[in-house]
Amino acid sequence: MESNIIDNQKLNVNIQLRPGSAAAEIKLNPGQEFTAEAGAMIAMSQGIQMSTTTYKKEFWWNYERYKKIAFRRKFFLNHYKAGQQGGTVILGATHAGDMFVKELNGENLIVQGGSYVASSPDIEINTNWQGFKSLISKEGLFWLGIKGKGTVIVNSFGAIYPVVVSGEYIVDTGHIVAFEESLNFNLTKAGKSWISSILGGEGLVCKFKGQGTVWVQSHNTTSFGNILGSRLKPRR
Predict the structure, then answer these.
(1) For residue 44, what pLDDT is reported?
(2) What are the residue ranges of helices labelled H in the chain?
(3) Is the pLDDT score of 227 beyond 70?
(4) Contact 209/185 with Cβ under 8 angstroms?
């Protein structure tokens, strides 16, 4: 019985169409289940049961003149469970890019909220992780604390690649996908002065210290949105 429980903690995931338009095909054993971000499902086989739960995430976003404004954001999760015949679920993601699969064995992983795709049922998702609560950034991101034993699937905007930190490493906040909580970090200006940082378009960056891995993405959603938005025709 114990071995069956352990097997169900790990998802059978096949990442297809990578790296530009990755999709995750998850093959489920009879009775096996997992959790995914709402709206991620592309297709699923007959006999898969789905239910939805809601998490409310209150976070602080420092806006423009550094005024702190509180927002309450709903975070929806779908839960999939296979019937007696097992089944398959195919997941996509909001961002056009790659996916990676991480097997956790009790350690903690911090994931950008928009990059979370799916996880095993025994994985705990903490929507109130406050590590970046004081983030003054143009990104306006929120973060999830993920821990437990099992499989986590994460999506990136563009290509994704791991950076193994041994000492110090600096990453632009808009390019952080996930990182191991074993790393310490602090926010700092990108240039030698605030003026050079702002004029250079970077603002704040995150300086990681210690031993661990950071997963970074090649594209920045805010930068892409600024370019695309300027070319869109205004609504009438």
Answers:
(1) 96
(2) 2-9, 194-199, 221-231
(3) no
(4) yes
Burial of 26: CB neighbours in 10 Å, binned 0-12, 13-18, 19+ = buried
Q: What is the pLDDT of residues 25-41, one digit of tens each?
A: 999 999 999 999 988 99
Among residues 156, 208, 164, 166, which one has the least CA distance to residue 186? 208
pTM score, whole prediction: 0.78
Other residues' Cβ atoms within 10 Å of the Cβ of residue 182: 13
Contact 117, 156 (CB under 8 A): no
Q: Whole-angstrom Cα distance, residue 6 to residue 214?
A: 27
Contact 96, 20 (CB under 8 A): yes
* Angstrom distance (rounded) from CA 78 to CA 3: 26
What is the C-alpha separation between 113 and 226, in angstroms, rounded?
20
Q: Per-residue confidence at 61, pLDDT binned at 50, 70, 90?
A: very low
Domains along the sequence of the chain with CATH: 2-231 (3.60.160.10)
CB-based contact 99:22 (threshold 8 Å): yes
